[in-house]
Amino acid sequence: MTAPWPASMSEPEPEPQRLYAPDFDVNDHIVGVTAFLGGTANVIMQLGLRPVAYGVMESDVKSGNVMVHPFKRLRTTLTYLAVAMLGNEEERNAYRLAVNTSHRHIRTKPTSPVKYNAFDPKLQLWVAACLYFGFVDLLEKVRGPMDEATADTFYAHSIRLGTTLQVRPEMWPPNRAAFWQFWEDNLDDLEIDDTTRAYFNDLIDLKMLPRPVQWVSAKFHRFVVTGCLPPQIRTKMHLNWTEGNQRWFDRTMKVIGFSLVFQPRTLRQFPMNYYLWDMRRRMRKGKPLV
Questions:
Q1: Which of 46, 53, 122, 260 lies deepest, with the highest CB count within 10 Å?
Q2: For the segment 102-130, what is each residue's pLDDT rounded down to a tens digit?
Q3: Which value, to the nearest 10 degrees, does the dihedral of the CA atoms of residues 7, 12, 14, 15 take?
Q4: What is the rounded CA–CA span in Å between residue 62 and residue 104?
């Protein structure tokens, strides 16, 4: 069995104890606003792996291209997150089949500097790792850190972010210590060239949306995206970030977190719960899921 961390790394020491929260309910940790706050930053992290970036940028599948159909792309991504984290086995299998149908057509071109196959489980492992990081990082930014038992249980549940596609269970780092070693090592190795940097800046500046939306939202969006990116990625993106920026960002996250305290679960989970409902409706009616 191949270890989920690079061969150059020594196997991390196991955590001394695996804790589990007996009353854990994943619904308590699904906060819809974090998907909007961290979505673009997460895409940049995923596509920081060059084969993934070029696979997406050179894909001929325009129906899933965020620069052409941003709202359809949003629906597909959030539905995947909702189904992976909250769906049952039948729903996850159905959505895997639907996504696989789309992924069959996603390949880099012969002239591409790197090669990409959407079914490569190692590349999918990195994407799943980014999704897990995004969930935990944003939850802790708006709510504060989880206790150890809850963090362990949430991590174990989050394996679904990979296994809902082609990631094999044994590929998922066995504990959080192993995950963070895997994360930091791979984060340092990401490459962002001029082509991908230009693409990422278009995403940050909301170039896929109408100009009035750009004028109103792009500056704040750039601020939030930059705040959500790990320092290594900020440097590779040539983004400026000061201590003053960090203070304002932290205050913004605290205000958002304070507002969540007063929201019922249904509102707090929106739009994740909506997209899960929509996927179930599509399944019942035999409509395309992607």
A1: 53
A2: 766 565 566 666 665 667 888 899 999 99
A3: -140
A4: 14
Contacts of 93 (CB under 8 A, 6+ apart): none
Whole-prediction pTM: 0.86
Q: Measured between alpha carbons, how far is 256 from 177 in angstroms, rounded to an integer?
A: 29
Q: What is the DSSP letter of 165?
A: T
Name residues of the chain where pLDDT drops below 50: 1-17
| DSSP-derived 3-state class of residue 139 | helix
Tell me, what's the pLDDT at 58?
Answer: 73
**Residue 147 structure tokens:** 């206790």
* Integer angstrom CA distances of residue 276 from 75, 133, 271: 10, 21, 9
Contacts for 254 with CB less than 8 Å, ≥ 6 apart: 142
What pLDDT sits at residue 99? 87
User: Please, is 232 exposed, middle or buried when counting C-beta atoms within 10 Å of its C-beta (0-12, 13-18, 19+)?
Assistant: middle
First to last CA, the chain: 33
CB 87, CB 95: distance < 8 Å: yes
